[in-house]
Amino acid sequence: MDLAELRGLLDRHARPDMSTAIDGVLISKVDRREQPSPSMTGSVLALIAQGAKRIALGDRVYEYRAGQYLVASVDLPVTGHFTKASPQQPALGFGLVLHPATVAELLLQAAPGDVPPGGTGAPSALAVSDAPDELVDAVVRLVRLLDRPRDAAVLAPLIKREILWRLITGEQGGVVRQLGLADSSLTHIARAVRWIREHYAQAFRVEDVAQRAGMSVSAFYRNFQAVTAMSPIQFQKQIRLQEARLLLATHPNDVTGVGSRVGYDSASQFSREYRRQFGAPPSQDAARLRDTTGAGQRL
User: Fold this and answer.
1) Residue 84 and residue 91: Cα distance in Å, rounded?
2) Strand ranges of the sheet holding 91-97, from the earlier edge strand across to the other edge
3) Which backbone phi and psi does 153 adopt, to 5 degrees?
4) Helices (H) and strands (E) in the chain, counts
5) Three-class DSSP category at 5
6) Which residues does 28 contact at the CB level (< 8 Å), separation at least 6?
7) Buried (b) or exposed (e) across 139-168, using 16+ Cβ within 10 A?
8) Which is nearest to 298 in space by CA: 2, 34, 4, 20?
9) Pairing mode, if any, of strands 44-50 and 91-97?
10) What is the C-alpha to C-alpha distance for residues 215 and 219, in angstroms, rounded to an integer?
11) Other C-beta atoms within 10 Å of 188: how many?
12) Interval 244-287: pLDDT, tens
């Protein structure tokens, strides 16, 4: 496993906004240990080349370090931070956005028996494993293309497909494969997650969201909990509070208005739940946010 070359490539090509010249490829570089902060995962592969990170999803905690990867199959609200990072040894991570259509295409192309059978029910949306040598090698070859822009247009899509195939047939393949299965439990839950995210300020009945997802209420609740580690109402609250924090960064003097905009009828309930989530009441946290730049998602 050649993590040394990957560390050098990531360190050299890292940008503040994590973007790269290759579509869907992200690079994260953090030179200090951070306080836990909220973000959305996106549907991604995240491979750590140096350092370590801890992520909390509901009541589950995931830790991964150099030589390990995390797969997020649904865009979920998490709280995370790098636990090993310093100016001398910054945390370095590679990310690749996962697209359900590409997963489906690879599954259709695979010969019978080439893809391991899937399990029953919806898997957790997050999973951590040791990165096999073949996966690291493909990631290194993809990041090398940042130094070869003439080759990237042709070769990058091929290597991204190779990386995805390694995931599909790897230890966490069940999580990734369900991304491409139109009738999988994960796909139904992802549909519900998207609806709640788009209507987070709106009260809803779990029965109605289950119907939108095409599942019975009992199956929906069970699978939603399995995928997100939260109930649908808890998930909505997480989204509301994260959106409130973003709004407070630009409207620090309108705590009541922000709480109302994200769906809270009670200012005291908003303040109480906000403090429980972020460790400070909205007004105090807003003042702190004024002195910092908005933190983007870090893999």
Assistant:
1) 7
2) 25-30, 91-97, 44-50, 68-72, 126-130
3) -60, -35
4) 12, 9
5) helix
6) 14, 18, 91, 92, 93, 94, 95, 298, 299
7) bbebbbbbeeeeebeebbeebbebbbbbbb
8) 34
9) antiparallel
10) 6
11) 23
12) 988 888 888 889 999 999 999 999 999 999 999 888 899 888 88
Quick one: which H or E segment has residue 91?
Answer: strand 91-97
Q: Do 90 and 76 contact (CB within 8 A), yes or no? A: no
Segments in the chain below pLDDT 50: 293-298
pLDDT at 96: 97
Pairing of strands 77-84, 52-57: antiparallel
Pairwise CA distance, residues 232 & 28, whole Å: 31
Residue 129 CB contacts under 8 Å (≥ 6 apart), including other chains: 68, 69, 71, 170, 171, 172
- Interacting residues of 211 by C-beta distance below 8 A, sequence separation 6+: none
- What is the predicted pLDDT for the residue at 113? 79
For residue 115, give the DSSP letter: S
Could you tell me the two tokens for 120? 């029953």
CATH architecture of 234-290: Orthogonal Bundle (1.10)
Kindly report, residue by residue over 4-14, the tens digit of the pLDDT. 999 999 999 99
CATH of domain 3-180: 2.60.120.280
Structure tokens at 274: 């906000």
- What does pTM read for this prediction? 0.81
Report CA torsion sign: 269, 270, 275, 278: positive
